[in-house]
Design brief:
21 strands; FGGY_N; Nucleotidyltransferase, domain 5; binds beta-L-fructofuranose; 39% helix; Rhamnulokinase; 486 residues; FGGY_C; alpha/beta; seven-stranded mixed beta sheet
Length: 486
């Protein structure tokens, strides 16, 4: 038996420390700690900015690792993964300059067009291969141009790399997460001088801020605190770790990493940088072992989470099992919305925004939480169907099964709707995909596991239960629903 390895997996609403041991080709996992996470709105002058409470996350991480070491003995390895794009800035002394800004903050509104005035969108895509999202780091940096904080900054570290720096003293940029910044050349897997050069037009010397890149599987160094282990740069982008843990046994699969976001796409050997791919807003993020994660960000269960928050604030009963049971009774596809509408990105009154979007699309808006929940799930399934079909077409690949990993695995109705909408079988599990991918990459980096991605996936398959959903009915009603949004 080897281990214990500790995976720190930070999500938009919670952080988790999961401990794993490898035994005879199986990974045994246990949750050692869980702590809350969420945006904090902070006023400064006239403007209120959404931040991450990154010091709380550091404390949750450290105390979780201590618990893990106390309960399981000295740690063999530690790996960190989180959401992408957001960063902390350090000054000349290596001290943090303020709390990182949350990707849902409004500061990047309208900024992509200002960047495109210097480097046209098509040229940017030809280099970084990224879907245009206002929160891509390249746009966040342009938005931050001229601030006192950025002027004082000497180093930029993405969230997992920032925590890694605090745990080890080492400053690196792990490449899967770096690939979400928009500053990386997706073909060479190096920082793009042309893109960082573009930011100089905004007075931002990004090249000077960026640390050296490392591939996932690099041993970063020993922990400062004596907990036993070494920090491994895993796929520090949670989606990269989750995709590594898809228990597929053959190459023609699509995946949905399903949580606050749904990341829907394919694993490829090389990026797709065609104009058609750019027009369809597909992203080429980097994955484990030289792979490319060719995917689209679908708005995800955020839509439902934010509705639940609003209903609870309004004093309505909104527990998830009750909502999902009620949503099952609502007729299918009565109302669908285009989940890619950027209006859904910021926090706020989500039920009202959904009702507005339905009315704009000429449909009767949902009237209660059950109808709204059903509208969200139908619409997500429709979004998955579009993404899987377009990805397969643009990458010229066959898809004959969809793997769902992450928290959304627990949503049986959504999994079934995904099968129905796509006409493909859906295999759901594991729930803790990112943590499993994180643990296995540590084990391999530290010499306790051999093999390629397929070998890691075989360990996941041997270690977890999955559930299979078979498509029911025809996809005709989904074709009609899609036309309603065209
Ligand atoms: C999912 C995720 C997505 C990324 C989004 C924002 O947790 O990492 O992949 O686009 O968060 O960073």
């Amino acid at each position: 038996m080897s281990g214990p390895y500790a995976a720190v997996d930070l999500g938009a609403s919670s952080g988790r420390v999961i401990v794993g041991h490898l035994d005879d080709g199986r990974l045994h996992t246990e949750e050692a700690a869980r702590f809350p996470n969420g945006p904090v709105a902070v006023p400064a002058g006239e403007v209120t900015t959404l931040h991450w409470d990154v010091l709380r996350l550091l404390e949750g991480t450290r105390s979780g690792l201590r618990t893990a070491a106390r309960e399981h003995g000295p740690l063999t390895g530690v790996g960190l993964d989180s959401w992408a794009v957001d960063y902390g800035l350090l000054d000349d002394d290596g001290a943090l300059l303020g709390n990182p800004v949350h990707y849902r903050d409004a500061r990047t509104e309208g900024v992509p067009d200002r960047v495109f005035a210097h480097l046209p969108a098509a040229d940017l895509y030809a280099r970084n291969g990224l879907q245009v999202q206002p929160f891509n780091t390249v746009f966040q940096l342009a938005a931050a141009a001229g601030t006192a904080q950025l002027a004082a900054a000497r180093r930029l570290l993405l969230v997992p790399d920032l925590l890694g720096y605090w745990l080890t003293g080492e400053q690196v940029a792990e490449v899967t997460n770096a690939s979400t910044t928009g500053l990386l050349d997706v073909t060479t897997r190096r920082w793009s001088e042309e893109i960082t050069g573009t930011l100089t037009a905004f007075g931002v010397d990004a090249a000077a801020l960026l640390p050296p890149l490392v591939e996932p599987g690099t041993v970063v160094g020993p922990l400062r605190e004596d907990l036993g282990g070494r920090l491994v740069a895993v796929g520090t982008h949670d989606t990269a770790s989750a995709v590594a843990a898809v228990p597929a046994d053959q190459p023609s699969f699509a995946y949905i990493s399903s949580g606050t976001w749904s990341l829907v796409g394919l694993e490829l050997d090389a990026p797709v940088l065609t104009e058609a791919s750019r027009a369809a807003n597909f992203t080429n993020e980097l994955g484990l072992d030289g792979t490319v994660r060719y995917l689209r960000n679908v708005m995800g269960l955020w839509l439902l989470q934010e509705c639940v928050r609003t209903w609870e604030e309004d004093g309505e009963r909104a527990d998830l099992p009750t909502l999902l049971a009620a949503a099952r009774q609502v007729p299918a596809l009565s109302c669908v919305i285009d989940t890619s509408d950027p209006a859904f990105l910021p926090p706020g009154d989500m039920p009202a925004r959904i009702a507005r979007a339905a009315s704009h699309a000429g449909q009767a808006p949902p009237r209660n939480p059950a109808e709204t929940t059903r509208c969200i799930l139908d619409s997500l399934a429709l979004g998955y169907r579009r993404a899987v079909r377009q990805a397969a077409e643009l990458a010229d690949r066959d898809v004959d099964v969809i793997h769902v990993v992450g928290g959304g695995v627990r949503n049986a109705l959504l999994c079934q709707l995904t099968a129905d909408a796509t006409g493909l079988p859906v295999v759901a599990g594991p729930v803790e995909g990112a943590a499993l991918g994180n643990l296995l990459v540590q084990a391999r980096a530290l010499g306790d596991l051999d093999g390629d991605l397929a070998a890691l996936r075989a360990v996941v398959a041997a270690s977890t239960e999955t559930r299979r959903y078979t498509p029911a009915g025809t996809t005709t009603i989904w074709d009609d629903a899609e036309r309603r949004l065209a």
